[in-house]
Design brief:
Shape: elongated
Helix content: over 70%
Oligomer: single chain
Number of domains: 1
Number of helices: 5
Strand content: under 5%
Number of strands: 0
């Protein structure tokens, strides 16, 4: 349920940011992309990367004390989630330079992020 809620709110906020008002607007997504300045990108990226990275570090830190999962597996989940976060956040850069397909990459990375985060939270919860 958490993954569905996180994904749904993320998609809704992303589409609202693009100015999508109805489903017909999605077919003209290229025209909806608003170019952002470098300052605007930094304004978006900074709090997201800091917040998501801090959350990832805190949750993954608990896996250091786990006896149930190997540290190699925990490290793989941590690195995968970190790469997904970076890909998700830096999609804004590619969208702003005109590569509209990165809007779909961003939405897919949001789904992967929510799924991997739920796996990580499950790993922590089941190992305590």
């Amino acid at each position: 349920m958490f993954v569905v809620a996180l994904f749904a709110t993320g998609v809704a906020l992303f589409l609202v940011e693009l100015g999508v008002e109805d489903m017909a607007d999605l077919t003209q997504m290229a025209g909806l992309i608003k170019p952002k300045s470098m300052e605007g990108l930094i304004e978006i990226l900074s709090p997201h990367i800091i917040g998501m990275g801090l959350m990832l570090f805190v949750v993954a830190h608990f896996l250091l004390f786990s006896k149930k999962f190997s540290q190699a597996f925990s490290l793989k989940v941590f690195v995968a989630l970190a790469l997904v976060i970076l890909t998700d956040q830096f999609s804004y850069l590619f969208i702003s330079i005109g590569w509209e397909m990165f809007g779909w990459v961003k939405l897919f990375m949001l789904l992967v992020y929510a799924s991997l985060l739920s796996v990580l939270v499950w790993m922590v919860a089941s190992s305590l």
